[in-house]
Description:
CATH class of the largest domain: Alpha Beta
Shape: globular
CATH architecture of the largest domain: 3-Layer(aba) Sandwich
CATH superfamily of the largest domain: Decaprenyl diphosphate synthase-like
Order of helices and strands: HEHHHEHEHEHHHEEH
Helix content: 40-55%
Number of strands: 6
Radius of gyration: 19 Å
Structural class: alpha/beta
Number of domains: 2
Amino acid sequence: MPELKEQVRRLLYPAYEARMVKALPRERIPKHIGVMLDGNRRWAKGVGGDPTHGYRAGAANIEPLLQWSEEVGVEVVTLWLLSTDNLNRPPGQLEALLTVIGDAVDALAAQHRWRIHPVGALDLLPAALSARLKEAEEATRDVDGLLVNIAVPYGGRREIADAVRSLLQEHAERGTSLEELAEVIDVDHIAEHLYTKGQPDPDLVIRTSGEQRLGGFLLWQSAQSEFYFCEAYWPDFRKVDFLRAIRAYAQRERRFGG
C-alpha cells in the first residue's frame, strides 16, 4: 500500500505543483528567503542510516530548492548549513558534515548558474574549507543569477558582534573618537557591516523538521520576516512543501513594525 500511494503521488503531484505555481500572485513573491535545513540526522535515524547519510541526503536537496526558487522569482536564498554551535559536535561527526558542505558548495559553484556568497565566521573553519568557500564565491562572482548565501558557520549573535567590531575598527582607522561615534551611530551603520550587507532582508524564513524557533538565524535581518514551519525533515522537503510556504507568505497581510 505505501508503494501504491507513492506511485499515485508521483503521477499527480507534478500537475498539482504546476497549478500552484501558476496561481501564485507574482507581485507577492518573496525576494529573499532564508531556509533552515533542519532534521538531517533525525531523518537518517528514521531510515536506519548514520548522520553522514542524512547530511548527504540533505545536500542533495539543495539544488532542487534553488531551482524551485528561480521558477517562482525569488532573487536571494540564504541557506543555513552550519551553526557556530554545531562546531561543538563530536569530531568525527563534525568532520563528516564539513566534508559534505564543502562538496555541496563545490558542486553548486561548478554549475556556474548561481552566485555563491559565504556568510559566517569563516575564521572558525578549517583553513582548507574556508578557502574552498572563498574560491566558490570568486568563481561565481560575475554570474547573473540567483544569489545564494551559504551560512557556514553562522550564528546571529556572532554576526552582530562582528558587525559592531568592524564598525569600530573602521572608525578607529578614520580617527573618529568614541564620543563622536556615539553621537551618530544608528541601525543603518550596523547593517552596513553585517555579513549580508547590501542585500534585502529576508521576506520569508522557512524551517523544516517541525521545530518552531529561530535558533539564532538571521537575528538582525529577520525582524520583519514572515515565518513558515514545515513538519518534514529537510531531506523529505518537496517542491509542494516549498510552494505551500510561498503561498502562505503571499496570503499574509504583512504588518511591518507591528
